[in-house]
Each structure stands twice: as structure tokens, then as C-alpha cells.
Amino acid sequence: MAQSVGLSTAHFGRMFRKSTGETPHQFVLRQKIERAKAMLRAPDARILDVAVALWLQDPAAFLPRSFRDVL
Prior knowledge:
4 helices, 71 residues, mainly alpha
């Protein structure tokens, strides 16, 4: 994200947090969680499919850890 707006990573992170109240990483994680929640509402949703669709490395740990951190 920083590179796309021509800022250093550190400066972008500081400015992002100042304007949004969260780090870029927290923002991206929150967006992934919201997307996962929406995907899991589908009657045929599978946790593995959601994790793969959201580029997560550890599908087994994704739901418990990520949802607990956000909720």
C-alpha cells in the first residue's frame, strides 16, 4: 500500500494509523474477517474454501484465532 502512494512503509504506517486508528495490517485482517463472515453465511460454505479464498496459510487456526482477536 505504501509503495502505491509513494511513501515509505514506516511513514505510511504512522499516517494510516493516525487517520484510521489501526495499523494497515489490522485493517487488512479486519477486511478479511468481514469477508470470511459473509462467505461463511452461505449454506454450503466450507472453512477450508474460505481460508483458501482469503489467502490464509493455516485454515485450521484461522477461525478460532482470527475471530477471537476481532470479536
